[in-house]
Write a structure and sequence with these properties.
By secondary structure, the chain is of the alpha+beta class. It has 2 helices and 6 strands. It has a 4-stranded antiparallel β-sheet, covered by helices on one side. Strands 2-3 form a two-stranded antiparallel sheet. Helix 1 packs antiparallel against helix 2. This is Type IV pilus modification protein PilV.
Length: about 180
């Protein structure tokens, strides 16, 4: 007599396959989250590089005020007024007024003023602090901001710029030499 064999999967085989599939999907989901975080951190680093280079170029255009750019700067405070000593194009400004205007515009980009959605600033870096050190012709610009997650180690830098951000602090440093006129 021939035995009647049935083809197919048992319930245990289906359950094992589902467990393996779920574990794989969780891994892919976590990889996606890590990739999005890394992409955002990279975007922030690029934005900080842009901000530092922007100020360096502004300083090169206004070399007579070079030493007066030195200082520590944060984003604009709510209700802070626009400097009225220059018009919006920067025309009709002396070098001192131009420095004030440059720093105002730079701080405005920290607060996300260049990107607005429904009347709310959405650009900029989180809790931005910028430090400019001028030593004769040597210029060091440091941008510090708060990253989206804590770092395992310490940020190594000779700068204390933004040190209140603790282990979520991210830094971008730009050192350059600006020749005098």
């Amino acid at each position: 007599m021939l035995k009647n064999k049935r083809g197919g999967f048992s319930l245990i085989e289906v359950m094992v396959a589902l467990v393996i599939l779920v574990i794989g999907l969780i891994g892919i989901f976590n990889l996606h989250i890590v990739a999005k975080r890394s992409s955002f951190e990279s975007f922030q680093q690029t934005q900080a590089a842009y901000l530092a280079n922007d100020m360096l170029n502004r300083m090169k255009s206004n070399r007579t005020e070079l030493a007066n750019y030195a200082g520590t700067y944060g984003a604009l405070a709510a209700g802070e007024t626009v400097p009225t000593s220059c018009d919006q194009s920067g025309a009709n400004c002396n070098s001192s007024n131009m420095r004030v205007w440059d720093l105002y515009q730079w701080r405005w980009t920290f607060s996300g003023g260049a990107e607005v959605d429904n009347g709310k600033n959405v650009g900029g870096l989180d809790t931005t602090t910028a430090c400019i050190v001028v030593n004769d012709r040597n210029v060091n610009i440091v941008i510090a901001w708060r990253g989206i997650r804590e770092m395992a180690g310490k940020v190594s830098s000779s700068s204390n710029c933004g040190s209140a951000l603790n282990n979520r602090r991210r830094l971008f440093e730009l050192a350059s030499v600006i020749e005098r006129n």
